[in-house]
Amino acid sequence: MSAPRRIAVAGAGLIGRRHIELINASPDCVLAGIADPSPAAKEFAQTRTTPWHSDHRTLLAQEKPDGLIIASPNALHFQMVLDCAQAGVPALIEKPVTDTVAAAQRLCAAIRRTGVPMLVGHHRRHNPIIKAARETVATGKLGQLTAVVGLWLLKKPDDYFDVAWRREHGGGPLLINLIHDIDNLRFICGEITEVQALTSNKVRGFAVEDTAALLLRFANGALGTATVSDATPAPWSWELTSGENTAYPKRDQPCYILSGTASVPNMELWSYAREPGWHAPLSRETITPPAFDPLAEQLRHFLAVIAGHEQPLIAVEDAMGTLAVVEAVSEAARTGQKISPGQIMEQAA
Fold it and tell me: Phi and psi of 183, rounded to 5°?
């Protein structure tokens, strides 16, 4: 039996504390320390007799963890991951991997030089529902993928915006929420090669968007739409349909529709039993993937990455592809032009 891995956490906000809960619940790792300059984080650590540091560099130097989970604000990711790479400490980086594609490109170069494994926390790829949807598309069970519909519609409470950065550019549903759905659609349906977009801030009037409509082209020829708004009561979002997080009331509704013949996450597959045609009856099949916590599975995977037993499911370069799509959406909305993620990559190089 090997000794439990010592895992530290940088950032003790909502998601950081969830990671800490999972570390404490795992028999395979222990909490090595917390890095977060806020008084609330210091008190949180002290009440648990956990080593606390105001910055991640001190934590890395003094605690020498086997791995670091980075759950800090997006703008801090780049330097934290760079410091981990230089210290030889693998990191699990909450999405987005960095705040810009340009920073992600520099990070990729640094990681290649050091060879230190890094995992990005697009945790929904670990969800068995998403894995089942990907397999359904990859095996051709749906036939030719022609059309994709993605929905992320719900209403955030007013006090959510008491935090100033959530009212500013970069703090809205595109980078905070839709990035998850873009990553899901890339993982399930393949690369996105072109986007068009419109955004609006009409509901709240903040500098950041509250609603967006996207038109997507996939590398396999499929076309898609995605509609996002954090300002409307609705049941069509991953949070409310998947049951992944029990903090949200589950609704038996889809948030993705693939070619009109499969819905996710309720995993209903529709097909013709006999000769196809619009007058023919459709039959329905339901796939029931196993249920488990994808965040817990992500932690297990991170420990296996640290041990060298598994390769990162979402490497920094892969996560940069998702970030490039989101940046392309913002640029398309700003200019009214068709934008490709490849253009974003080239401009950032």
Answer: -65, -40
Q: Percent of the chain scored above 90 by pLDDT? A: 89
What is residue 240's three-state secondary structure?
A: helix
Predicted confidence (pLDDT) per residue in 27-47, tens digit:
999 999 999 999 999 999 999
Positive or negative, the CA dihedral 189, 333, 174, 81 is: positive
Contact 10, 68 (CB under 8 A): yes
Q: Tell me the one-letter amino acid at 238.
A: W
Phi/psi of residue 331, nearest 5 degrees: -70, -40
Three-state helix/strand/coil letters over 25-75: HCCCEEEEEEECCCHHHHHHHHHCCCCEECCHHHHHHHHCCCEEEECCCHH
Per the prediction, the chain carries an average pLDDT of 95
Q: Which two tokens stand for residue 83?
A: 């410091």
pTM of the model: 0.92
Residue type at position 150: G
148 half-sphere exposure, CB direction, 13 A CA radius: 29
Assess contact for 189 and 220: CB atoms under 8 A: yes
pLDDT digits (tens, 9 = 90+) for 9-32: 999 998 999 999 999 999 999 999
